[in-house]
Write a structure and sequence with these properties.
It is a single chain. The chain has about 130 residues and is of the alpha+beta class. It is about 40% helix and about 20% strand. Strand 1 and strand 2 form a beta hairpin.
Length: about 130
């Protein structure tokens, strides 16, 4: 097990192929270890590899004017890919404002990461 930057990302190996089962197990155990409950969203290496290969942000550079955000939804039925890909301008809005809008629409069962963080997570998986 390894963490990736301090934003709640944990890379781990599991014999289980069911992300649903893993999410439930982790959510059940977290309060014992951390003292609080938290929504857990699991994505496999294959899912992240496919996402990075398809790169929905191909022609966009991450900057203050084009901030690249991936929001993973717990309920995969809400959007086909199980993730939303958003670009916004940090000169016009703040990250917490975007997160609040996404949480209002998709409830709290969502977590967002920058595209660079998604790439870092995949890189960490490759070094294990």
């Amino acid at each position: 097990m390894a963490t990736v930057i301090s934003s709640g990302n944990v890379v781990f190996d599991s014999g289980s192929k069911s992300t649903d089962i893993l999410e439930k197990k982790i959510e059940k155990e977290l309060p014992e270890y951390l003292g609080f409950t938290s929504t857990t969203i699991v994505r496999s290496r294959q899912e992240l590899e496919t996402m990075v290969e398809e790169n929905p942000f191909k022609s966009i550079v991450h900057s203050q004017r084009s901030y690249l955000l991936v929001s993973f939804l717990k309920d995969r039925k809400l959007v086909p890919e199980g993730a939303l890909f958003t670009t916004f301008n940090l000169e016009q809005t703040r990250t917490p404002d975007i997160m609040n809008q996404l949480e209002k629409k998709y409830e709290k069962a969502i977590t967002s990461r920058t595209w660079k963080t998604v790439e870092r997570i995949l890189k960490k998986m490759d070094t294990r």
